[in-house]
Predict the 3D structure of the following.
Amino acid sequence: MGIQQREQALELSRELDSLPEQEAFERFFARIRDTEIPFYPCIHAADPLGMFRESFDALYILGRTVAFPMAIGLTMHLYMMSALAAAPLPSEVPLVKKRGRILRDLRQRRLLVAVASPAGRIGHRDEPSGDVVVEVRDGGYVARGRKAIQSMVSQADLLVFSAQVEGHGFGLFLARLRGEPALRQGPRVFSGPMACTDTRPLDFEELRLEEDHVLSLGPSQCDPLLTYAHAWFHALVSAVYLGGASRALEEARKFGRTVCLPDGRPVAGLDGFQMDVGRLVLELQTAVRQALSFGPEVARLTPADLPALSELEDLGAQIKYRATLTAEKLVGDARRLIGTRAMAADHPVGRLSGQILFGPLHPWVSAIVEREQGRAALGPGEYLGLPAG
């Protein structure tokens, strides 16, 4: 990440971290559009490695602050726009001809995109369920149904959603969200430390769509695009959780340097404390380096690699699995090092203790990843444990 880009994220983080959470929520969305952070996919459309690294670093930095839940919401925008910008798709996919215009419009008008998560699992694993159904009508399309979970809903301008499509099996669409009367927002799904993800249900009440709203139609177009998008999600959401873990580590560091023993020596001078913190540093850096390995992998893909996209999705899922487990452990270990003061409501580690638990629950949930990997390893052939290729 360039110095100027990193400074944008650091400056915004310092500004937000001094505010109460709801005020930080309002300031975040007032300020984030003034930065280039949401528009890295537009700026680096031809450079997936740069796109990933700058997005990852920004989300990591924001995850260190009171903006943690807002950064989760922003991840949805960044992962989907990264996929729309860089997916190595054949020319017959409608998105290919539209994405240049979509990306220019997004950056020029400073627009944010919410993503309606599929109810089922996409691609080579399971067929998605029909939570929203699109009917072909009068030369266009009409969508009806409900999407149960999408973040950043009240703040986003556009919506990307998937649906069962009459005569096509499945489709992916980009539609207007802000001010659209046919999309009715429900109340926030989460309360407490994750309320500011702004996650809400959406009811589709005869939403009218035209050909211009279509990004892909049918399994042959949707499966590669959504598999690629899910891989980006796994890798980018890991940045927020690892950023939160790094903040917990920073709080342990400050505790060790400012709290003294009866003889006046700082706790940080104790050999045991140094070893404890050293173990946390090693665990964090190992998980961060694994997450950063996604960038070179995604950068080398071409349309000829579409049959192997499941390998990229597996890498993303493994990154998220390791990152979220590491983050949860680091926050717990930092809490134990600091003691009861870390459980105060206004202490960063106290706040993170309620947020970091959500990591394994993002799709794909850790239990599903564990089951699939176990089933594969227990097959009839020898299990070697090396990645394909």
